[in-house]
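subagent[fold] <- orchestrator: predict structure for attached chain, return tokens only, no commentary.
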Amino acid sequence: MKKRLIPHNQLGLPFTEPEYMPKEVSPLPPPIVARNIVVRAKWEMNTSGDIYPELRFGGKYLEHAGFQIGRVVALIVRKNKVVLTVSRPDADPEPQVTARFISIKARRKRAIALRLKTR
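subagent[fold] -> orchestrator:
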């Protein structure tokens, strides 16, 4: 009896294995901005007077990354990791937040104009 050197399937045909092709992994896009921020202490004004860690950051880079004013953001906190994701990027920003921002911006412009007039 002859030994089969090539494995055969149930029909007696040799298996043809396709060449191994690794999946193409798209590289991560470069970060819009990379910076280090410090975890600060936040004091809660309540009866216990607890102090909690706080992260504060902001800038035009957030807008360029898709975090426009009025957007709803999902926050996921894991051990040594915080992930912020725009929940509904296709939806319009929250109208009441956008309207409040526009009114604050208008008040600031008026205040700056008054300061410049009085000088």
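orchestrator: received. Logging for downstream: The chain has two helices and four strands. The mean pLDDT is 79.
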